[in-house]
Amino acid sequence: MTPSLFTESDPDMRINREEIFGPVASVIKVRDLEQAIEVANDTCYGLTAGICTSSLKAANTFKRRAQAGMVMVNLPTAGVDYHVPFGGRKASSYGPREQGSHAREFYTQVKTTYTLPI
Questions:
Q1: Which Gene3D superfamilies match (predicted)?
Q2: CB 49 within 8 A of CB 16
Q3: How far apart are CA 72 and CA 85, in angstroms?
Q4: Residue 37, SS3?
Q5: Residue-number span of the structural domain to which 46 is assigned
Q6: Between 20 and 30 A from 36 (CA), which of 3, 110, 111, 116?
Q7: Cα(115)–Cα(118) distance, rounded to whole angstroms?
Q8: CATH number of the domain residue 28 falls in
Q9: Measured between alpha carbons, how far is 106 from 62 in angstroms, rounded to an integer?
Q10: In the Cβ-directed half-sphere of 76, how many Cα atoms lie within 13 Å?
C-alpha cells in the first residue's frame, strides 16, 4: 500500500475516530500542548501516541498524560523494539501485553533480603 497523509483533518472525522492499521497518518492542528493532549485522549482507543517537540517539559507532560500503551517522543509510533511489551489501553488492548510474563522477567532483577525481628 502506498502511504497516505491526511492534512487539515479534525478530531470528529472518521479517519480520526477509528483504529487504522496501515501506512496512514492524519494531521490535526491544535493551538497548544493542552489541546494536543485532549485531542490525543479523546478516543476509545489507545495503542500508541506521539509528539514531536524540542521541549523536554512538553515531552514529559505528554508522556505522563497520554492515555496510550506506548508513547513516543520524536519517534515513529510503529516499529517498537521486539524486547519491550507491546499493547495499548482502552479498546486497543485486551489482557496482558503480547510478551506476557517473559517481558516481566526481562526487566526484573532478583534480590534476596532478610529481616531479623527485634
A1: Aldehyde Dehydrogenase, Chain A, domain 2 (3.40.309.10)
A2: no
A3: 14
A4: helix
A5: 4-106
A6: 3
A7: 9
A8: 3.40.309.10
A9: 26
A10: 7
